[in-house]
Specification:
Length: about 675
Amino acid sequence: MKPLPVIRCWLKPLLGNAMNGSWPHGQDPFCFFFRILLLSGWILFSVVFLASPPASAAPLTASAYLTELKVQARTSQLADDREWHLLLHYRPRLFNGYESEQDDPGFFLSPGGKTNPQAELDATLAQFFSSELVGRSKQPAQCAFIARYHWLRQKLQFDDSRLPKMACERFDRWFVDFEARSITLIFPSAFMNNPASMFGHTLLRVDQQGQTEQTRILAYTINYAADVPPDAGIAYPIRGIFGLYKGFFSTIPYYLKVQEYRDIENRDIWEYRLNLTEQQVQRLLMHAWELGNASFDYFFFKENCSYHLLTLLDYADPTLHLTDEFLFWTVPADTVRLIASKPGLVSEITYRPSRSNIIRRKRESLSPEDRALAYRMTQDLGELASPAFVRLSHPRQAFLLDLTSDYLRYRIDTTDESAFELKERNRTALTARSRLRIPSEDFMVMPFAKQPELGHKTSRVSVGAGWRNNDTFEEVTVRAGYHDLLDPEAGYTPDAQIEIASVTARHYNRADRTRIERATLANVLSLSPVDSVFHAPSWKIHVGMQTITHHGCKLCSSGVVNGGIGGAVESRLLRREVLFAFAEAEGNYGGAYEERHRIGGGGTVGVLSDLTERWKLMATGTYLKYALGEKSDDIRWFVGSRYTLSQNWALRLEYTHRDHDNDALLAIQAFF
């Protein structure tokens, strides 16, 4: 019996000629086709099972490529690159190494990333291969830290076949919604009634293509601020100074910020359009997206709103080196001055006046009769039927109705009066205004304070000489910030004073004695002239140390805490004067007093006068009666004059009398 054909064809190659007699190879078509089928099977087997890698080969390939990238990054020393340090906010330590100013652990992909740039770069590269969700935003690393990804992709030329690029839909939607074409720096001026805003504020507005004066208010902003609970109270400045709040970045519609700053807090707003390229705008927004995964410890004087916005601009254009200019403190006005000083960086400056300043300037333009009529209209809209109003031309009626509406909206936002009643009055005014059917005339509002970059710098050193009683002296004063009533006023809130961290050293020649004459922790004063429309109080507070001559104690140190509330009025008898009065309380502590202290109260009256654009004069008189501790009284008066030599130089002459103690000083002051 012959073998089956399949067995026969299988055995024939093995037995060779031993089987040739029975099944000649050349005469067996079945074997021929069987062998073709067998050969095809071997080829298919080789492709599927031999040529294909095992299941673990893909991770091995990724691991190999990651190793290549790490070696390439180390060879290029990318961990030492300025842009990597900007992305991670690294700053040199005092002695050696680096530490990031970023305080959110989720911002780092390496456990040692806060102080080790190389470890963070290695961990970042490794995380780019993973779809694990990281950061506060819970996204893959390629999307959560998209600026890092794009920078490393550019430097290392990622191979997309070995490191696939992930889709980042959340970022893409966020970025497209901006329709970003340019960036504008926004500076709301100082607001004295809020410690958070006493030095001003900065934020960035993302401008769109084709944006107009009317539509730019709809743009979005990038803002950095402390997360402060609504009931923080007096704890806010203390916690803010020591970094006990967290600061976060946010994107907020600009019209909401305008409403907050211009309409409610009555702060002028200055807008600085920046000359950034399209690529720089994109870099800024990518890093802003990354900082949504971050929080910083908020420090009121250093790492504040302005400082961290500068880090965004530094990454957008690494040649700027903006944050390097601020080592100990960051004042918003100083950051504006710095940006304005960079050649070609600012292309356009726009002034957006506060609502209160619009009202003030409009009232100034009126005759006394029309000004009185405008005020009566805000109180009783029955004045619309009065002969005084009816006889006016339609353009003049429209102007007064616009002014009335401005004032009523101001009262709605800033007072505790019945909002319903004020809104009804405003609705009546707007209805009457609509009947006139004429457009409002253009009204140019001139700022009361010039733009901040025109002001003096915020730190000051002064060198002077003088006479005290029967001795002469020389003195040096260094003040960290910020501005006092006699300093050149351009660029600063009028009639406001904020002195922080000031120390005066004085040498008395006859006594051959050198001592700390004065030390000021804080000396803050706000004069708010009142009139028939505006009624804000004036106030002051002073904490520090001063040298006194009291009873038998000459040149004795005395601690002082003083505070007061009062009022001020403005006149134009000469050029411009502000007359003010305060009711105040004071406490002193020192060895010159019985029981080492005294506490009492009294008052101060004074005048602050602009004699010319460069020349200013201030005179004050004070009487205090101390009823607790040492029972005594104190009569003081002061006359001071300042002449501005240039933007950052001034000459000061002062005379002080206090309880048989007379002091005269001539000093030259330089701001830096």
